[in-house]
Structures are given as structure tokens and as C-alpha cells.
Design goal:
Number of domains of chain B: 1
Strand order of the largest sheet of chain B: 1-2
Oligomer: heterodimer
Strand order of the largest sheet of chain A: 2-3
Distance between the termini of chain A: 27 Å
Shape of chain A: flat
Strand content of chain B: 25-35%
Largest sheet of chain B: 2 strands, parallel
Radius of gyration of chain B: 15 Å
CATH superfamily of chain B: Glutaredoxin
Helix content of chain A: 10-25%
Structural class of chain A: alpha+beta
CATH class of chain B: Alpha Beta
């Protein structure tokens, strides 16, 4: 069951990767998150695109946060 | 995006690009939310969403496309991976349902 959905995700990833210059993909190993709804979100500090530090913990008690991890800038991904 | 802001949420994009590349990208596509740089892949590892590519015998890794919604208590409310993570409607729906306080 798990392996079927895993395979289909690889297929989706391969299709998504077919945009633009051909990326020679021989092997893709996807690490699935072990985090799930109900878990605490691990805190982090990262630089934003204005070189400002962003701490996830600064938003606790203030805002809901949507974390959208994307593959690479300037690509369809 | 306006819907997310209306539901009292902030949005962060996160990738392994440098702040300079992210800034150029932000200007090009006109995003209004910050793009964060995880250049050393620390957060990707912590969140467990590093994706390994073997390209011509060399291994490269970057993010698996994933969207997390974190509520005001710091608790994850939803996790979406790959294709479903492109569409923000579910994240909007989750945020809209969260209590305002």
C-alpha cells in the first residue's frame, strides 16, 4: 500500500520534472516527513530574501503560519 | 494569498536557494510573502523532507515540495506533499477553520 503511493509520487515527480531543460534523473530518493498533524512544528531561524532572520517561534500566540517548501527558485517546481 | 492573510495566517516559502536568488525570484513572480533560505538544509532535515537525486552518479538533494500549516500554538494542523501541495486551497481551508485566538 505504502509502496504503491510512493511509486505514484515518483511518477508525479518525474512528470513535473519534464518541464524546461531535461534534467537527467537516474534515481530519486524521497524522504517523507514523519511529522503529522498534532505534532509540534520544530522551531527554526532562517534568512528571508531581505537578509532578515525569521524565527518560527516569534509567531507563536500571534499568527497561524503556512510553511510552503518549494523545490528551487526560477523553476516550475 | 489574501484569503490566508484574512484568516490570520502568514506564509513563508522555503527552499535551498540563497537570499539573493530568492529575492530575484520574489521580484520576478511578484510574491508578497517572505522566501526563506535553508542553504545548509538544516530545516529540511529537521522536517524530514530532503529529496535526494542521483544525477550522473553524483547525489544532490533539495526539498520535497511540502506544505505545513502550523497553528498559533505551534502545532501542525496539516501536511500536504507533492502535487496536492501546489494547490493552496486546502491550506486556506485549514487556516479558516482555526480559532481566531
Amino acid at each position: 500500500m505504502r509502496s504503491i503511493s510512493f511509486t505514484s509520487m515518483i511518477v508525479v515527480a518525474a512528470l513535473a520534472g519534464s518541464v524546461g531543460a531535461a534534467r537527467p534523473q537516474e534515481d530519486v530518493k524521497v524522504s517523507h516527513t514523519s511529522l503529522k498533524a498534532g505534532d509540534m512544528a520544530p522551531d527554526f531561524t532562517l534568512l528571508d530574501n531581505k537578509w532578515k532572520q525569521i524565527h518560527l517561534s516569534d509567531y507563536r500566540g500571534k499568527k497561524n503560519v503556512v510553511l510552503a517548501f518549494y523545490v528551487l527558485a526560477f523553476t516550475e517546481g | 494569498m489574501a484569503k490566508l492573510e484574512a484568516s490570520d495566517a502568514v506564509v513563508f516559502g522555503i527552499s535551498i536557494d540563497s537570499p539573493a536568488a530568492n529575492n530575484a525570484f520574489a521580484e520576478k513572480i511578484g510574491v508578497t510573502f517572505p522566501l526563506l533560505s535553508d542553504m545548509n538544509r538544516k530545516v529540511l532535515k529537521e522536517y524530514g523532507i530532503l529529496k535526494m537525486y542521483n544525477v550522473q552518479k553524483e547525489e544532490y538533494d533539495w526539498a520535497q515540495r511540502t506544505t505545513f500549516v502550523v497553528d498559533k500554538k505551534g502545532v501542525i494542523q496539516s501536511v500536504e506533499e507533492e502535487a496536492s501541495a501546489i494547490n493552496p486551497n486546502n491550506a486556506v481551508a485549514v487556516c479558516t477553520k482555526l480559532p481566531k485566538k
